[in-house]
Amino acid sequence: MSTLSVLFDASHVLASQRWDEFLQQTINGLTLGSVYALIALGYSMVYGVLKLLNFAHGDVYMVGAFIGFGMIQWLGFRGAGDTWAPVVSTWFVLLVVLAVSMAGTAGLGVAIERFAYRPLRDAPRIAPLISALGVSFFIAYSMQLMFGSQQRDYNAFGIDNGKLFLDGVDIGNVRVPLLRIIIIVSAFVLMLLLWLLVTRTRTGKAMRATSFDREAAAMMGIDIDRVIVFTFVLGSALAGPAGVMFALRAPASVTMGFVAGLKGFTAAVIGGIGSIPGAMGGGLILGMAEAYTQGYISSKWSDLFVFVILIGFMLFRPQGLFGKADIRKV
Amino acid sequence: MSDDRLDPYDSGSLSAPLPGAAEAAAAEGATSPAVGRDEWVARHGANLAGRGGIVGTIQARLASVPWWAWLAVLVAIVALIPVGFESGYVRRVAFDTLIYMLLALGLNVVVGWGGLLDLGYIAFYGIGAYAYAMLSSSHFDVHLPSLVSIPLIVALGAVVGLLIGLPSWRLSGDYLAIVTLFFFQLFITITTNGDDVFGIDLTGGSNGISGVAASVDPLSFFGWELPQLTDAGAFNVAYIYVALVVFVIVFVALRFVNLSRTGRAWRSLREDPLAAEMMGMPINWLKLMAFSFGAAVAALTGTIFASLNAGVFPNTFQFPLLITVYAMVILGGAGSMGGVVLGAIIVNVLLEVLREPGDARYVFYVVVLAGLVAVLRFSVRLVVVLGGTILLGFAVHVITSVVSDRAVAGSPAGGGFLTGAVDRWVVLPDSLGAWAPISYVALVAAVLLLTTISGWWRIAALVPTLYLGAFVWENVMLAKPEPTRYILLGAILVTLMVARPAGILGERRVEIV
Amino acid sequence: MRRRWLAVTALVAIVVAALASTAGAGSSATASSQALSCKSTMKVAFLTPLTGDAGFLGNEQLSWAKYAVKTLQKQYGLKIQLLAGDTQLSADLASSLAQKYIADPKVVGVLGPSTSGAVQATSQALFRAGLAHVSPSATRTALTKGNEKQATPAFFRVVPDDDIQGPADALYMVDKLKVKKVVVVDSQEPYSVGLANSIERTLKAKGITTQRESVNVNTSDFSPIVTKVPGDADIVFFGTQQPPKAQTFAQQLLEQGKKAKLFSGDGANDPDKFKVPGSYVSNFAAPINLFPYNKNIIAGWQKDNPNATLGSFGPPTYGSVQVLFNAIKRACDAGNGTIKNRRDVIKQVKKISVKNWILGGSFRFSTKTNDPLNGRFYIFQIQSNGSYKLVDPTIGS
After folding, report:
1. What ipTM is given for this predicted complex?
2. Which of A125, B175, C93, C363 has the fewest CB atoms within 10 Å, measured from its CB?
3. Chain A window 7-66: which residues touch B at a Cβ cutoff of 8 Å?
4. Does this model's pTM top 0.90?
């Protein structure tokens, strides 16, 4: 072959390699971002209704991951090379695990609201924030007290000999594994359901009214307590599946809540805290930003870049991408 | 309030009750805030109606002691600790407490006086420590004497505080908290990974700057060096005195700042930022100054800390430390200098005591008893609760020991004279297994439930809850004192915020919306 | 008014409780010179991270330490109480705790500190106070070797240091696996960074192409890094201390269709948690259940810790206790039933020898440094049934 054609072939390979890498990183980013988006939604909704940054939300997510782990243990999948043979039951099991963790975290969220935030509804703004910090600490270390600091591995790879990881859809040269598709799709479905709930139902309307102006909504006959509880239920119910989805792919530990909460929080802020489409968009953007900075700039300093981006946002566009500038009515 | 007495703006006559006021106030009764009622008027009745009798006299006498007398007493106690205790450990704990007191004072400026939620405060502490390690060590081969590096670092802290406070110009409460939190994360990332910044070893990375290679200098004043350890390896007492002197200086300085115009401006900023702005106060500058002062105090503390430890490690300056200092400030009462100092002492001593299961046990039972007395006073109900719990305990213990030998085969952790009583009263299985998480969750649920019911139902529910609490404490929490410490910190923060946001010595604030 | 009253009461209560607790701890600064009868209960302190990012390490070690103290004291005819101090991975806390144990005259030896940073911070104080400290896991080479040793002559360790593991692994990759391209990943904490640096150095010296990556210590989803692994890389080295993370990394390599196999250090050695076939693990010992004389020890430990699995941090802790007790016993014998000065224990530590060492073979200290004699690393490959097969016992300096 002539040198020209060899060079052409080489550059073609390189270009397609680069394209493959880009595609793969995008998928990585979407997977990460879906989880962040679910967490961010919880933050955003609670902030919208209560103007409270719920620092304990990350730990609720962690509890969700542990509930999922407990379920999988209890259902008999010990992870030591066990496989569940028929594929049907795998889906079913996953669904059940998601549902149970949803219920569990929703309950936890309601309890937190009832005991740590409701008494502080009329207190100075700083009080529920500090209470949230306390709750976050309390939950994280209570989990450590009860379950120890070892990492918990779902060992989803053991299901059907790794079917969830190795089979999938091919886009060009890149294979998108089944599990990632499940995660991204379920996250989207959940977010879609949430969006429908908030925009099309009466309770959703009540939520939006309360976040706009709590006193006026109360005077219009909306039961504020109910709405707030409902918001917490929704937000925390999303954190549970997020935890399960994360833990299906990477080990869970009692310290994962803090970092994940921070990331979800960043996502909510980037998208515009208080805005639901903002949280979704912010989550995906953050996930992709993380994947791209790790992939293309430097894996060591990717955190730094993300934080700098965030601080930049806060300084120049604090309302985020989709939020509205905060006008205080005196 | 006693703090008013210390404000020179208030002349003596205003603080003494007018004749006949006590009767009038008693007739009016203590009032609580409500919609449509002026706050000062509402609190006035309670202010004037102190407590009568001996207790009231003692309280009045205590309240009339001037602040510098309290400070002198504290200084005397701390200065005498090394004399009374030869143990290097006790001295080291005293030093650590002084450090925490300083940190709490600094945070008090930002949170208590400025009303700003600064979640990046520990980063300033870290900056001070790292700066000292860089300026007085062989890391970059710069060996500035302490008398030069320390003021330099304080100034550096103030400048960085100013810079980080700049976002507060445009942002309010929550957003500021977010920015400071992210600044903190940035600091952690840089210090942990800073061993290869374009090829330069800046911060020593995850190993920090320490050890023989870096050779961080001990403090030296006028050429006189203070070694960190004695020949027997014990902690050098001189560092306590240095920290004490610094503490006194900072305390007095902050006292004067608080009494100045700036202090009053901060108070009005905290009470109602909007009104303060409308009154023409430069609230943005005030916020920056609060940040700056807090940061300077933290940086100063960092230098002493770095010199004693002969190094800095990134692991020290992390989130748990932030929560600890916050717990101290909140417990003591944000806004009150004496309060946060007290909070620092209580929290740090508590945390140290909790390391040993035997000692932790004392504290637990003392605190529970004190709590019961505080809530129930000396009344029939108290007797019922205590008696009921003790009886229930013995009954359960006897029954379970009859049913199963293994259920009482364990022994109490640690030592101390309470173990005998505890062994006979609390059910101590030799291994709990899955019952540990279950009983813990049951305890938390029970305690939360208690807050929702009232009356005799509450008394009835209190008895088994107390016993369950003792059970969980002995079996689960004492077995692992380490997470227990942080659980208690978290619980302190939440309960304080819900039940008594003013802490011990703080002022009750009512947000006027 | 009421506040002040509450404040004073609170302060008094706390001070009383604290004084009651320190009454036992406070003693003369000449604690080291008090003679101790070997028939009395002596204490051994353990400095290890029990909460925080490294909590899993400390807790595993503590469970083995407790078991070892319980069973070995009868064997050596001693009465020892174990004190555990949580350093939370923070060196200044380690210094505070060291002060606590120095001040206690009944403490005759220290187990740990488990982390190299804590050793560096406390060795000076412990040495001056005459306390021997035997660590099961502080592997930073500079602690005992080099021109400026960061630890003191009172510091001993029972596992080989990082500069043995790094070259051992790297040379195996070069000589036996014939690698051309290696990706080296660290997780931004001292152990993995030290190991990664060591491996990268050795590989570069041999002319192998290396690519260096770094992940946050809290990360457990490594997909972006895995994507960066070139398709023709042979090995990815990831020195993590958490076996589930090694497992995840190896699985993600498979997921993204990379040819590279994962190679991890002793921190990931856990046949229950890390078992992706084809991966490599290096460890300072063979799995302890391969040695028949360990059967009773393992069974006894598992009875005390029903839900726990055998990790790689625990057994060296057992070994450290054995070394320390051995030294204490020798000091007792040399002093005719009393330990006149706890410094005597330090003198005895290097002289000990242990047959049926829990990590295999017998144990002595090297004559030149306070490291194990002939410390070496073993390299295992994970088989398709998840078991670890020893593939290299010969290379190791």
Report:
1. 0.84
2. A125
3. 47, 51, 53
4. no
